[in-house]
Amino acid sequence: MPTTTNYGWTTPADTDLVKDGAAAIRTLGSSVDTTTKNLNPQTTTGAIAYRSATSNVNTSLAIGTAGQVLTVNSGATAPEWATPAVGGGLTLISTTNYTGGSAALTISSIPTTYKNIYVLWSGFYPSADTGSIFLRVNGDTASNYVRIGALGQQYSFATSFALNHWTVPTFSTNIAYRAVAWIQIPNYATTSTGKIIDSSFTTIFDAATSNNAGATESALYIGTSAITSISLNTGTGNWNGGVALLYGEN
Prior knowledge:
250 residues; Jelly Rolls
């Protein structure tokens, strides 16, 4: 018997006897039923059929979960459901509380899975008058830091600069002198180029005084390693207290 062009269904020939018609119709109907099932294999609401590796046969992708979007798998061979990446917005990675007695406030084990990182240090002050506060990344004490920003002042600031750290403002041990620091490092996980480090530092004095200090500046860390730790160090003495919040941005 002849067959159809696309799916190969068996059909009666013009010369077939009438008595063979019922059997031929049953054969054709069975073929149509099988092909239809292959082309529409879903068995649950919301499933999606797509072309499989077998000619004229589809496969089924079950419905995804709430909020997922349809995308293509990593091998570019089939569709799949995935949770969309959220651009912008900050994710709190860690909170570090310091009890004092250390010359460095350090955030370590920074994951390299974000595009940018931000650090907010607050409530810290030194145990002794300090000539400077300086920042290091990855504990790097080599000559890999270059200041690229301008340093402004209302009160007093350290004006010296060493290549093995990045110097920022000075302030006193007075307990009212609580400092806040905001650091942001875009593209911090790259290993092919240096990293820009932007900062804002403010020393909060007693409201009754007229002495205040603040600085906004940038530096270039020319090391090519991904940044996995950041520390604020005192020029003299140790830090008292403080908290550091580490944020990541996708």
